[in-house]
Design a protein that fits this description.
- The chain folds into 2 domains: 80 residues, no CATH class; 215 residues, Rossmann fold (3-Layer(aba) Sandwich), CATH 3.40.50.
- The protein starts with a helix and ends with a strand.
- With 307 residues, the protein is an alpha/beta fold.
- The chain has a 7-stranded mixed sheet with strand order 8-7-6-9-10-13-12. Strands 2-3-4-11 form a 4-stranded antiparallel sheet, with no helix packed on it. Strands 1-5 form a two-stranded antiparallel sheet.
- The protein has 10 helices and 13 strands.
- Bound molecules: zinc ion (ZN).
- Pfam families: Methyltransf_23.
Length: 307
């Protein structure tokens, strides 16, 4: 059994490549890197009484908070395959409001007519805000979950809509054809964010706009809840803040135009339940989804342009 423990990957900083980290900054009582892979699988989905995460340290050079020890890409692939919808439990109306908020920020930025590209659109809650914009001639959606494809297919005619099951398989997208690219809660999950962003950059037109939503590890909520913050989890090999996301973008050839804290809409009971869970109380409350409140829950929207 002990031999599987050594099978986790050792990582250098995924942003600047530096191998020097300070001491551990965020960790669980039993760190994931000390637990056998078979045991760790049971912690992968959702919330557990005992929180188990890989320890996060800060890069000595660029300050990025990342896990120097993490799952390999093969292990991650297998884990994601058996993962249920991660927003299960939040009613559609609340999710739609949150996505509309991202769109309202994005539409303040001007861009040339061209293609639209989105990775991980899920059922298209963000995409449907943008689909009627006459500025876009082609829509390139990269969504591995084929179960949502019928929903996505209804968004536009088949001569304008291109669906791919490969999350970052951009090869069919003509170079410099994309005027807006969107990645919502994608970048936190990637083992190699710089490589992916560089691939994307080649597809983007001069003056194009990239909109990226990530968690903010410098948020008040992250500070208050410490390692109980839900974004500290087995699915996030690194987490950004406004400064480290800017460094990452620079490494990939993007210039950050704006970083903005965003609002998430949640039903009150959902929030209360998860707040209790964050502090270690696993309690199920009756659903009362009618009342939704906007909260700045430690998410940031970064707007960048290719340099
Ligand atoms: Zn670094």
């Amino acid at each position: 059994m002990a031999n599987t423990i050594s099978k986790y990957e050792s990582r250098v900083c995924p942003s600047c490549g530096c191998s020097d980290t300070g001491s551990v900054s965020v960790a669980s009582k039993r760190p994931a890197q000390s637990i056998d892979l078979d045991d760790l699988q049971s912690h992968w989905n959702g919330f557990f009484k005992e929180k188990v995460i890989f320890s996060y340290s800060r890069c000595a050079r660029c300050n990025l908070l990342y896990c120097p020890s993490f799952f390999s890409s093969g292990q991650l692939e297998a884990l994601y395959e058996q993962m249920p919808d991660n927003t299960a439990g939040v009613p559609l109306e609340a999710l739609e409001k949150t996505q509309k908020g991202y769109f309202d920020i994005l539409k303040n930025f001007s861009f040339e007519k061209g293609g639209y590209l989105e990775t991980g659109p899920d059922i298209g809650l963000f995409t449907k805000n943008i689909i009627s914009d006459p500025a876009f001639d082609q829509f390139w959606l990269f969504e591995p979950n084929r179960a949502v494809w019928p929903t996505l297919n209804r968004l536009a005619d088949s001569n304008r809509l291109h669906l791919s099951a490969e999350m970052f398989g951009f090869s069919e997208v003509p170079d410099t054809s994309i005027s807006v690219a969107v990645m919502i809660h994608v970048l936190d999950h990637l083992l190699n964010p710089v490589e992916i962003l560089k691939k994307l950059r080649i597809k983007m037109a001069p003056g194009a706009v990239l909109a990226v939503v990530t968690h903010d590890e410098s948020s008040l909520l992250a500070k208050i809840t410490g390692n109980g913050w839900p974004a500290f989890c087995l699915q996030h090999p690194q987490l950004y803040n406004p400064s480290t996301v800017e460094t990452l973008m620079k490494e990939a050839g993007f210039k950050v135009v704006r970083v903005q804290r965003t609002v998430n809409y949640f039903p009150v009971t959902y929030l209360f339940k998860h707040l209790l869970w964050a502090f270690g109380f696993k309690i199920n409350l009756p659903g009362w989804d009618g009342l939704q409140i906007p909260l700045k829950l430690g998410n940031i929207l970064t707007i960048a342009s290719p340099e």
